Amino acid sequence: MTQTSTDKAHTPFLSRPGVRRLMPFVLITAIALVFIFENRTSVEIRLLIPMVTMPLWGALLIAWALGILACFFTARRRSNRHSKRPR
Prior knowledge:
Layout: H1 17-38, E1 42-46, E2 51-55, H2 56-83
Antiparallel strand pairs: 1-2
């Protein structure tokens, strides 16, 4: 009778390439969100022409979200450009 082995080489969770690439993002995001939500005072912000009074955490959260979007689109554009290169 032939035995089939179901024991595959188990790689630790933190040594996987996808997890190692994601860890700095998770760490920086956690620190940024703590910083954002600790700043709860209201501030006046000039948006080109109007003056807006809003909580500082809201302005920081908007800036953080725009930065994440910029990184996402830049990384996606870079990967598309490299994938179209002839081999």
